[in-house]
User: What shape does this take?
Amino acid sequence: MAPLARIRLAGTIAATALCAAAATEAAAQTPPDDSVVLNQQLQLGDVFSHQTLNVVDPQEQVTVSTSAQGNAASGAVENGSITVRSEQDMRGDAVASTDMTLGGDAWGVVNATTQAQGNYLAVSAYDADLTVDATQANTGGLVSATSQLGEDDARLLGGAYLNASAISNTTALYGEGSFVEGSIDQSSAATVRAYNRIETQYIPAEAVVDAQAIVNAVQATSGQTSGQDLAIVQTSTGDFVEAESSANSGNAWDLAGRARASANQAVLYNQGGSVVASARQDNTAYVRAAATTTAYDYGRAEAHARGAANELSVGNNDIYVEIDNSQFNSGGVDVTATFSGTNGYDVYVGADAVGNRVTGYSCSDCGGYLEARNTQSNGGDVSATANTSVAGSTRSVITGANAVGNSASFYVSRPSH
Assistant: This one.
């Protein structure tokens, strides 16, 4: 009988079953063959994290990291095999916020990351067999990440990279020379919100203001002769999920505001073996993504927003792919991208909205085979709007707005081929 390591936890803690020192997720251990890890986590209260910065004329880099997380578990295995059975239950709010005031000249790069998560599970396998049975539930009220940098006379001479990310449930799997299999069940009734904004006078370098909000997220990546066999169920029943970015400067050389909002998202990629995926995604939440970029004078300016209720991507850089997909959406999807400026060179504005989307592909150079069964039903309104205003002169303006109810794409190649 496989040896058991039982974990029953209340609060935020990392549960690990690990292998050799090469594993980066946690401290190294060497599990015996056919090991089993049982993880149970319950977070009843709210989790808050907040930072305030008030800095004048920083001479070098400014780096800020703010994180609030309910339940987290991570582990890895090298050689042998392991089964991970995990139950994570988040019943409180997870809120992270960062407020920055940078006066005068900031000579170095400004990096600010603000993250809020309800439940998080990450497991890696190296030359091993990995079986996962994961359940994640979030019945809390709010998962929120907010980042603001405001000072009208701020001069970010080294540029800026600002990210705000809010995710209710996350499962991340990774394998090298491994077979990854199992089931993942995610459900969330929480409101998920990400907001990111800057106000500056001058940015003579690249600046990116990014906001991402996802209710349920699954990512499985495997390579070096690996394989996957996964069953995924994702359910989003909260009021809404929204991501909003606002990038503003008097004079900016390369300024971008980007926002992405998704209710249910699953991305699977493999190399060197087969991929079998079964997925069901249900969403009733309202999905909103909005990106705004403004600059009086600009070199390159971008505003891009993307929103999706349900999205699944399954790819294999090898022969065999099998997909059984069901997607149901009754929530609205509203995406808006806006740029406003006076004089400059190049403007890029894009808004993409979709109710249900599935993409599957296998390798064409190696005699790929793809088998797909797909059911999609969208009952919500889907809207994409791009607004562009240039009061003076500009060299080029490239804009696009795309709204789709149901989208299904299957390739025996990569989608870019």
